[in-house]
Amino acid sequence: MTAMLIENAVGIFTGLPGAAMRATGAIRIRDGVIAEIGALEPQPDEQRLDARGCVIYPGLISTHHHMFQSVMKGVTAGINLPLAGWLRAAPYRLWSKLDEEALAVAARIALSELLLSGTTTAADHHYLFSDTFRFDPAHVIFEVARSLGIRLVFCRGGATKDRHMNADDFPPMPVETLDSMLKSVEACAQRFHDPSPRSLTRVALAPTTPTWSLDPGELKEVIAAARRMKLRLHSHLSETADYVDFCLSVHGKRPVEWLADHDWLGPDIWFAHLVHLDPGEVEILASTGTGMAHCPQSNCRLGSGVAPADHMARLGGAVSLGVDGAASNEAADMISEMHSCWHTHRAVKGAHAVTAEDVVHWATAGGARVLGFPEIGTLAPGQQADIAIFDLNQPRHFGMHDPLIAPVTCAGNAHVRYLLVGGRIVVEDGAIPRLDLAKLRSDAFRVVERMAA
Ligand SMILES: [Zn+2]
User: Fold this and answer.
1) How far apart are CA 281 and CA 286, in angstroms?
2) pLDDT of residue 167
3) Cα 327 to ligand 1 centre (Å)
4) What separation in Å is there between the alpha carbon of 294 and the centre of ligand 1?
5) How far does residue 394's CA lie from ligand 1's centre (Å)?
6) Cα 208 to ligand 1 centroid, rounded to whole Å
7) Distance from the alpha carbon of residue 125 to the mean position of ligand 1, in angstroms
8) Which of the residues 73, 98, 185, 311 has an alpha carbon 20 to 30 A from that of 179?
């Protein structure tokens, strides 16, 4: 049984709404769970963590990623292209070069970046499952997550139909029958899905996108299968105007209205991006509790636009943040994501659009809501001890009048003094104890050379 006391912090962001958002004092942890927060005296059996000069946040939660892309950063052919051209130039062109080592190295890079920015839970949307693979991507990714100690929600993606974006000089993206996809998801869930409150491993059903990856006749079967298996459903939606144009021309409705006809809305579903929504679609999403994985950096990098996350949040909708794949967001860490989120909405809509507190809420409690994981994302007695302790002892933080918002407003390379997942230390003094950084650097270099060849 772990017994810990985190003391001397400058302040605590709880992730709770309203005035309870901010707290002071110490945090007591018993057996991986938060026992008390406030003015606490140390007890003799406790390990004491000194958070002097630090602010404390709930462990951050990223709700959308493609970790395989962490060895596909800054691919020259796609660096200045919008979504469709970039897909063709980067992940679609390179996917078949992904072997077991490349996937493991990519996952280790991705999760290390997340951990070092204070992230304790990551959702990975993996949509590459090919007969040519001599490995199980779920096993590879879960194994890396286990070795680093982070919570992982594996969103098992895939497609039953080809989007016709392939070219002659690279193999087409893998497709499978719906029956094969659902059987594979079920097997994956039986092996890895742990619905318990302390879970480190969960599985979601996640066809790549309902518009182009599935036949419309399959949509109801997919959501019914997810609900039968008690898994959440995740997918991409309305990332670009192409989604809207396609749905209007083929189905005669905007994407969210079209999906409403197929039961693809509800609190057990979350979509990445949701950039191109009209006000009616935002209302439908908010009133049904359907979640948004807001990915501002990737949307900026690809020139896709700015999602109405602020509008959806004002209506009580479920908004979270995701870093998305590093092939379209080379800064795939949550500190950068929060900072960009805070800036982007203000640049477009004015200084009142989004506060630093809103951004923290989306990156913590919002993520927990979207993932259906109420035991994480907030700091309160009874919650899992997923805790990020950000060290503010760098010049970029000096001079702050409100240090509690410094990780969002000052941003830059975070220095995490401690990061806890369920009370276990996974980052200490800006380093991951279980990671061989020099080896990861040389592995990444070798994989990139092989992919570029
Ligand atoms: Zn994505």
Assistant:
1) 9
2) 64
3) 10
4) 10
5) 33
6) 8
7) 7
8) 98
With contact defined as beta carbons under 8 Å apart, do 57 and 334 qualify? no
Q: How far is the CA of 349 from the centre of ligand 1 (A)?
A: 25
Provide CB contacts within 8 A for 398, sequence distance 6+.
none
Distance 88 CA to ligand 1 centre (A): 14
CA of 236 to the centre of ligand 1 (A): 6
- Are the folds of 3-58+377-428 and 60-371 the same? no
Adjacency order of strands within the sheet including 119-126: 60-62, 119-126, 151-156, 201-205, 232-237, 269-273, 291-294, 318-321
CA of 192 to the centre of ligand 1 (A): 22
Strands (DSSP E) found in 382-447 = 387-391, 416-421, 424-428
The reported pLDDT for the residue numbered 132 is 86
CA of 373 to the centre of ligand 1 (A): 21
* Tokens matching residue 185: 């998801």
Which stretch of DSSP H or E encloses residue 287?
Answer: helix 279-288
Query: Quick one: pLDDT at residue 296?
Result: 98
Q: In the block, which residue shows the tokens 């959308």?
A: 64
Q: How far is the CA of 210 from the centre of ligand 1 (A)?
A: 13
Q: Residue 166: what pLDDT? A: 61
Residues 289 and 266 sit within 8 Å (Cβ to Cβ): yes
Residue spans of the chain under pLDDT 50 = none
Q: Assign a CATH topology to domain 60-371.
A: TIM Barrel (3.20.20)
Query: 447: Cβ–Cβ under 8 A, 6 or more apart, which residues?
Result: 71, 101, 102, 105, 106
Task: Report whether 450 contacts 102 (CB < 8 A).
Answer: yes
Distance in angstroms (rounded) separating the CA atoms of residues 317 and 292: 8
- Answer yes or no: are the C-beta atoms of 62 and 334 closer than 8 Å: yes
CA–CA dist 421, 201 (Å, integer): 13
CA 12 to ligand 1 center in whole angstroms: 32
Helices and strands in the chain: count of H runs, count of E runs: 16, 18
Kindly give the distance from the C-alpha atom of residue 30 to the centroid of ligand 1, in angstroms, as a whole number.
37
Q: Which CATH number fits domain 3-58+377-428: 3.30.710.10, 2.60.200.20, 2.60.40.10, 2.30.40.10?
A: 2.30.40.10
Closest by CA position to 39, among listed 9, 70, 3:
9
CB 403 within 8 A of CB 12: no
Q: Using alpha carbons, select from 171, 183, 173, 101 the residue that is nearest to residue 137.
A: 101
Please report, for the chain, the start and end positions of each structural domain, with discontinuous segments joined by +: 3-58+377-428, 60-371
> What spacing in Å lies between the alpha carbon of 291 and ligand 1's midpoint?
15
Q: What is the pLDDT of residue 130?
A: 86
